[in-house]
Amino acid sequence: SAQLKEDREGEIMARMRFLAHVMVVASSLSCAEPCGQGDTVTARTTAAFAPALSAALLHNKKQLVLRVRGASQATMSDVTLYTNKMCPFAQKAWIALEEKKVKYDLVEISLYGSGGKPRWFLDMNPKGQVPVLKHGDKVVVESDEILKYIDQHMGSTGDLTKGHESDVAAWMKFLGSEVLPSGKALINGYGSKTSLNEALRRMEERIQGPFIFGGDFTLADIASAPFFQRMMTEQARLGLNRQEYPKIFAWYEAIKAKPSFSNTVVKSWWWWW
């Protein structure tokens, strides 16, 4: 039938695309653009060629996703971020990698559905949570730990703390213990604006501008950005307004102007505090 012919042609094209990826990776040819962004091929298609893949090309039960970001050559990176683009915690790690301008691979994990999470992913993180960062043989879990690891081991050491180590640590504790819990309670219907507004007022007082600690863009900004991206879409519901929180709004404008942030913004996302 016409449909069967179309299906077979599609399978042939998928095989050809995948073979092209393998040949480019194997030959390490230079290319002007990152290779393989967004391409998806079936596990059945890739089975015969699995030995040619690097560890970054991991597959789940149904599909394999290859993405190379920030690469000047078509060689696979030893840095892989296992993520889901809709998750704010995973977005934090993604922003840090973009800001560091290191070469990395991005593998998306489907966290819901009948198939569940892949066994190989649960072997890396038994909690089944994203993000997970793999750097060579090193596996790092928990988003804040990943941020600290990226800052210390990728790009220029410590350039996302810049002498603000204790301040960054205190900010991340404040964010996780006050801002996020009160926001989660309000969004989920069991909290009040009062608790969140108290946390936001403390945040307003601490922001130096244009970023949290003045001119330095740090892990404190990165850790906060994904959540305020979401909060800014619910300003009335959360009691968030420019008149009461001018520093927060000015800070978020500075965040939006950062390519490392804008490169990680997707059309659909979860609150998923």
Characterization of the model:
The protein is α+β, with helices and mostly antiparallel strands. The chain contains eleven helices and seven strands. The strands form two sheets. Strands 3-5-4-6-7 form a five-stranded mixed beta sheet, covered by helices on one side. Strands 1-2 form a two-stranded antiparallel ribbon. The longest helix is centred in the N-terminal third of the chain and has 26 residues.
Give a concise summary:
The protein has helices spanning 2-27, 43-46, 88-100, 119-124, 143-153, 165-187, 193-206, 219-231, 235-238, 246-256, 259-262, and strands at 39-42, 63-66, 68-69, 79-83, 104-108, 132-135, 138-141. By secondary structure, the chain is an alpha+beta fold.
Main sheet: which strands, in order across? Answer: 3-5-4-6-7
> What share of the residues lie within helices?
40-55%
Class by SSE composition: alpha+beta
Shape: globular
Rg over CA atoms: 21 Å
**Number of helical regions:** 11
Query: How much is the average pLDDT?
Result: 77
What is the number of beta strands? 7
Please mark out the parts with pLDDT under 50 across 5 or more consecutive residues, or reply none.
Answer: 2-75
Percent strand equals 5-15%
Q: Give the biggest sheet.
A: 5 strands, mixed
Tell me the span between the first and last alpha carbons: 49 Å
Query: What sequence of helices (H) and strands (E) makes up the elements?
Result: HEHEEEHEHEEHHHHHHH
